[in-house]
Design a protein that fits this description.
The structure is a single chain. The chain is of the alpha/beta class and 376 residues long. Helix content is 45%, strand content 18%. It has helices spanning 25-29, 53-69, 88-101, 115-127, 141-147, 185-202, 204-218, 222-242, 258-267, 276-293, 299-310, 327-335, 364-375, and strands at 2-6, 13-17, 36-37, 43-44, 46-52, 73-79, 108-113, 133-138, 152-157, 160-167, 172-175, 347-352, 355-359. The termini are far apart. Bound molecules: nicotinamide-adenine-dinucleotide and glycine. Residues 146, 150, 152, 251, 254 line the site of glycine (GLY). Residues 146, 150, 152, 251, 254 line the site of glycine.
Length: 376
């Protein structure tokens, strides 16, 4: 078992990684249970869960069995899988449901699922009665190594992804790596891109380790998987503790590959055509090559980054996407990025493997020319 603290003063919490945690969920989560009174009734010994149909179907029974043995029951709010759940409409239903249950500020709502469930639940809890507690139980690799830690919560609107949100830290993150056994391979690859990101942005030794052991991580070999998850979370916890609200530039490092990646996701309609992590993978290759074009990174290292992603089954060339647009259109998407400040867009670039930095002098016309070359 690994317990990794996220040190944020009064908002500190632990991330627990334990194989088989869900089988003994009641004992792992007991400190976060509190009875709540359903609309004027006597307090219930029930625990509120938000899940999607897949995570409820696969893990609901295991959790209920464990709760029953401790004298608790579960209340469920279940949504259809996918980005559609991160909407005003679902948020309204969820907050109404939590109010009906009589959730108080001191209660915790449990988010069982991937980044969609964590982001939706976290945002609902940030506004419910001006803030109630929540606990993340991430079940995708992406959510385990990235979205469940750090307190970014959000929903999407017609104007774009994650534009309505709040920083709201969970009270705990409970990770059972065994949940990844049921994760589709494509989702596993998308999460792996975020794992590799930690090596590229700040930990050359971890990158080297992933070059050798990445296949075992993807194959969900328990020791390799746990090492990859724990190392990723330690890196994220360190960065979040230094710059919780992305003000100093430290947390911005976590956006490596995201500016290019988001433009590709936007061009493909934020659809199943390109998952978020797949966009980040392509974006990291582009960031590496663009860094080499500017002369502060080598093409050999850009090729290493590409190979590490290809070995995990990820696409690494934007020419493989069959896009019908040119570089200028992708740059147009970037202009709508929420990181745009004073007409310039900060780009995460590389000095070396394990050494990313924020460049604020990137010329978007040059980026469009570079992207045209990459699309050819
Ligand atoms: P997701 O939540 O959509 O889950 C992907 C799919 O996997 C879904 O169909 C889900 O039902 C299924 N699934 C989940 N766990 C499973 C399991 N154990 N077995 C089988 N199927 C399972 O996607 P995601 O990649 O986890 O998260 C993407 C979301 O996270 C995006 O909305 C993105 O904006 C957000 N995000 C947030 C942050 C943050 O810091 N808050 C960071 C990165 C991404
Ligand atoms: N996923 C980027 C962040 O948490 O800041």
């Amino acid at each position: 078992m690994h317990v990794i603290p996220v040190e944020l003063g009064g908002r500190s919490y632990d991330v627990t990684i334990d194989h088989g945690l869900l089988n003994s969920f009641a004992s792992a989560a007991a400190p976060f249970f509190k009875s709540y009174a359903a609309a004027g009734n006597a307090p219930q010994r029930a625990v509120p869960f938000v899940a999607d149909t897949a995570t409820k179907r696969i893990y609901g029974e295991t959790i209920e069995r464990s709760l029953q043995s401790a004298g608790f029951a579960a209340d469920w709010f279940v949504v259809e899988p996918g980005e559609g759940a991160k909407s005003w409409a679902v948020l309204e239903k969820l907050t109404d449901w939590l109010l009906e249950l009589g959730i108080e500020r001191g209660d915790n709502v449990f988010a069982l699922g991937g980044g969609v469930i964590g982001d939706l639940t976290g945002f609902a809890c940030s506004v419910l009665k001006r803030g109630c507690g929540f606990v993340q139980i991430p079940t995708t690799l992406l959510a385990q190594v990235d979205s469940s830690v750090g307190g970014k919560t959000a929903i999407n609107t017609g104007a774009g992804k994650n534009l309505i949100g709040a920083f709201h830290q969970p009270n705990a993150v409970l990770i059972d790596p065994e949940t990844l056994a049921t994760l589709p391979p494509r989702e596993m690859g998308a999460g792996y891109a975020e794992v590799l990101k930690y090596g590229l942005l700040g930990d050359a030794e971890f990158f080297d380790w992933l070059e050798v052991n990445g296949a075992d991580v993807i194959a969900r070999e328990p020791e390799a998987l746990t090492h990859a998850i724990a190392t990723s979370i330690r890196a994220k916890a360190r960065i979040v503790a230094e710059d919780e609200r992305e003000l100093s530039g430290r947390r911005a490092l976590l956006n490596l590959g995201h500016t290019f990646g988001h433009a590709l996701e936007a061009e493909t309609g934020f659809s199943q055509e390109l998952l978020h992590g797949e966009g980040v993978a392509l974006g990291m290759v582009l960031a590496a090559r663009y860094s080499a074009r500017r002369g502060h990174f080598t093409m050999q290292d850009a090729d290493r980054a590409k190979r590490a992603l290809v070995n995990a089954g990820l696409r690494s060339e934007i020419s493989e996407l069959g896009l019908s647009c040119g570089g200028a259109k992708l740059v147009d998407h970037m202009r709508h990025d929420k990181k745009m400040a004073g007409g310039t867009l900060p780009f995460l670039l590389l000095n070396a493997i394990g050494d990313a930095f924020v460049a604020r002098d990137v010329n978007l016309t040059d980026v469009a020319v570079f992207l045209d070359e990459q699309l050819a």
